[in-house]
Design brief:
flat, transmembrane helix, mainly alpha, 74% helix, transmembrane, MetI-like_sf, 14 helices
Length: 309
């Protein structure tokens, strides 16, 4: 009787999906089509990631490797093969020229443009957000948005004539002023979107404490918008640093050339000496790379700030 009851209970346990010790049975494996689709999706995703990595890494690798080649090695060796006899002669050739002047011009133009753009855009965004119910505030914001629809190439002739009338042609200011004008719309849009997420109660509390608009701008809006300010500063800096059209049209002297324009001068100076030109490209990208490494955390925080509010 006892043996029969024990066998019956054991049989019931197996039918209910549990073993003799009362532990749940192993879960069933997913159907084969589902597992095959999951494996295929992983293979496609991994292949796409590898392809994207190759598209990004291979040009940078070729750039650095070519800058370390001699003229003979460049014409005889495989383009992607490591240099047989690495040399820094190309970098010495570039540095012995006017590269320092071009680098200084690019730094002055970039820093001046970023400072003027960020300061003006922060004040404009603060005024638009604080007076969001005003009709003039809405009209002003729409005018800034309208600036996003104006292509740079379509207005280069009017800009050129304005610079001539202002007697600023062939100067660094001739590059800074239009660069600020074309960087303001996107900067104002980003800062307005960020400042709109700041609780109005914070502004009202400062008003109760007797703070004016300038005090709220400096003590409240600017600190809270620091991630967005770093983001737009890096973005605008990259655009100005890589800008080519304004320096090409609005300057003509060699001592006023910036790095993107100076690279064409190096090409003419070195003729078919591609390794020296690649060395100049590598040196011109180092400042941007350093800035990105130092500001990467603030940049990511600014890009993702809107998702956490």
């Amino acid at each position: 009787m006892s043996t029969t009851l024990t066998r019956t209970r054991a049989g019931v346990g197996k039918d209910d999906g549990a073993d003799a010790a009362g532990r749940p049975a192993t879960a069933r494996r997913a159907p084969w089509p589902y597992r095959a689709a999951t494996a295929l999706r992983r293979v496609v995703t991994g292949g796409a990631a590898l392809l994207w990595t190759a598209l990004v890494v291979v040009p940078v690798y070729w750039l650095v490797v070519t800058s370390l080649r001699s003229g003979t090695d460049f014409t005889t060796a495989s383009p992607l093969a490591p240099p047989g006899h690495p040399t820094l002669a190309n970098y010495r050739t570039v540095l012995d020229g006017d590269f320092a002047t071009y680098l200084l011009n690019s730094a002055v133009v970039t820093v001046a443009t970023v400072v003027f753009t960020v300061v003006a855009a922060l004040m404009a965004a603060f005024a638009i957000v604080r007076n969001s119910g005003s009709r003039w505030s809405r009209v002003t914001f729409r005018l800034f948005l309208l600036g996003l629809a104006i292509p740079l190439q379509a207005v280069i002739i009017p800009v050129y004539l304005l610079i001539i009338r202002m007697r600023l042609y062939d100067s660094l200011a001739a590059i800074v002023l239009p660069s600020v004008a074309f960087a303001l719309p996107i900067t104002v849009m980003i800062l307005v979107s960020f400042l709109r997420d700041v609780p109005r109660s914070l502004f009202e509390a400062m008003v109760v404490d007797g703070a004016g608009d300038w005090r709220m701008l400096v003590s409240l809006a600017a600190p809270l918008a620091r991630p967005a300010l770093v983001t737009v500063a890096v973005y605008d800096g990259l655009q100005v640093w890589n800008g080519f059209l304004f320096p090409l049209i609005l300057t003509q002297s060699g001592d006023k050339a910036v790095l993107p324009l100076a690279l064409t001068l190096y090409r003419g100076q070195f003729g078919i000496d591609v390794p020296a030109t690649m060395a100049a490209v590598v040196l011109s990208t180092l400042p941007v790379f350093v800035v990105f490494v130092l500001a990467r955390r603030q940049l990511v925080a600014g890009l993702t700030a809107g998702f956490s509010k």
